[in-house]
TrEMBL record:
Organism whose genome encodes this protein: Rosistilla ulvae
Protein name: DUF1501 domain-containing protein
SUPFAM superfamilies: Alkaline phosphatase-like (SSF53649)
Record InterPro entries: Alkaline_phosphatase_core_sf, DUF1501, TAT_signal
Domain of life: Bacteria
Lineage of producing organism: Bacteria, Pseudomonadati, Planctomycetota, Planctomycetia, Pirellulales
Length: 455
């Protein structure tokens, strides 16, 4: 949270009525005791990028969306597997998807469907969709960096007023569904700049502007923060505070610029475009995320403003019961927003520069259970990719008649991320960093290549 003004009067306040606690929050945007400059620190030697820049929007569907009810329908399967939905044609002859995605069907020439994603694990967590790695096994010292952390490290910010790695993921009661990944062994400086809170928390969006404070007063407080940091430096034995002066200047650049706040202010968007995305539902249900379709529009605005990787979570897809009822509620909302995002990117000539991926942590059981639901099925799942200069308008891979396993072209999570790195202009053959034990590490496992059909 960014809080500039405190309550007036009382002990522990400065002469202008600002409390010490609230002032210190200027540097504590999201990661506990970490200051805003720490979140924004990037590899200075890389310098600034130049727009237009490449970017990725990662749409995570927490809980495991049902692959056979979305983009891999099985009409030849028995009714207890086939389910209630029917396929419809798309703008690409021969490609069919669920009838609940009519708007996306019209954008299919800009999409690629992968029906054979393999390598998922059984537990509910976002790791493989944000890092490519199974973080629960063989994790290196410091942890696996997320894709956004690697991009932050390798490419730095595209401008002074926008962090390269931004998260719109809500914090969820089942915490792993709200995790956009971390900086890992690359450091906290490359962790996501989190803009959303959890249930009962104030969104970071609401406090992203300087309220009734002049730049001069902010700079005075920056001087005070610097003196506080000096004490922290004296007590710091890890070297984490080194080089913070330059990044404090970058932090001030963000605080005094309207670019980030403007990107998140939909009142500044064409009302017709806002309407195109639909109306979301901000309510937290159970342990998942709200159904905020507007965040797909905010993601587009953030990448236009300079963000390189933006992640978001949408709803809760762990449908052990009432699968088809829940699908009729959530899928049309996702259909409208995802199709609007793709159309938006095409109309703004961003479809060659901005990649979109939409997926979950695993698929669902082919057989419908007694509660009209589908259970966890890590053997195979699906993903939709769009734009990014990829060779779209195709389906990659297939499953057997019952949707149980991949029979053609199995695709690993890391292959999807390797494709996204490629789209961002990152040559995976030249990237190597060291974890906290000095061991060489890479964004994806050695030998993993981008999906050849797409690049």
């Amino acid at each position: 949270m960014l809080t500039i003004l405190g309550r007036s009067g009382g002990a522990g306040q400065y002469c202008d009525g600002v409390s010490r606690r609230n002032f210190i929050k200027v540097g504590g945007m999201t990661l506990g005791t970490l200051s805003l400059p720490q979140l924004l620190q990037a590899e200075a030697a890389k310098g600034e990028g130049h727009r237009p820049h490449k970017a990725v929007i990662n749409v995570f569907l927490p809980g495991g969306p049902p692959h056979q009810d979305m983009w891999d329908l099985k009409q030849d399967a028995p009714s207890e597997i086939r389910g209630e939905f029917r396929p419809i044609g798309t703008s690409v002859p021969g490609i069919e998807i669920c009838e609940l995605f009519p708007k996306l069907a019209k954008q299919m020439e800009h999409c690629a469907i992968i029906r054979s994603v393999v390598g998922a694990k059984g537990p509910h967590y976002s790791d493989q969709c944000v890092t490519g790695w199974d973080a629960r096994n063989n994790e290196p010292a410091g942890g696996w960096p997320s894709m956004g952390a690697w991009v932050s490290k390798l490419q730095g910010p595209a401008g002074n007023a926008m962090p390269p790695h931004v998260s719109l993921m809500y914090k969820t009661r089942h915490a792993p569904w709200g995790e956009p990944g971390a900086g890992g062994f690359l450091g906290l400086a490359h962790a996501p700049f989190r803009l959303m809170g959890g249930k009962g928390e104030t969104s970071k969006i609401d406090n992203m502007v300087l309220k009734d404070i002049t730049l001069e007063r902010l700079q005075d407080r920056a001087g005070l923060l610097k003196s506080i940091d000096s004490l922290q430096r004296e007590l710091d034995s890890t070297g984490a505070m080194d080089g913070m002066d330059a990044f404090t200047n970058q932090a001030l650049g963000i605080l005094t610029s309207s670019k980030l706040a403007d990107a998140m202010d939909l009142s500044k968007e064409d009302p017709a475009i806002v309407e195109r995305y639909g109306t979301g539902d901000p309510q937290f249900r159970a342990d998942g995320a709200p159904k905020m379709v507007e965040n797909l529009l905010i993601a587009r605005r953030l990448v236009e403003a300079g963000a390189r990787v933006v992640s978001l979570n949408f709803s809760r897809w762990d449908w052990h019961g009432q699968n088809f009822k829940r699908a009729r509620q959530d899928m049309p909302m996702l259909d409208q927003a995802l199709a609007a995002l793709i159309q938006d990117l095409v109309e703004r000539n961003l479809d060659k520069d901005v990649s979109v991926v939409c997926w979950g942590e695993f698929g669902r059981t082919p057989k419908i259970n007694a509660n009209a639901g589908r259970d966890h099925w890590p053997r195979v799942s699906t993903a939709l990719l769009a734009c990014g200069g990829m060779r779209t308008g195709q389906v990659i891979g297939s499953t057997n008649r019952l949707g149980e396993h991949a029979v053609d072209r199995p695709i690993q999570f890391q292959e999807v991320l390797a494709t996204l790195y490629h789209n961002l202009g990152i040559d995976l053959n030249t990237v190597r960093e060291f974890d906290l034990r000095g061991r060489p590490q890479y964004p994806v496992a050695q030998g993993i290549e981008p999906i050849r059909e797409l690049v």
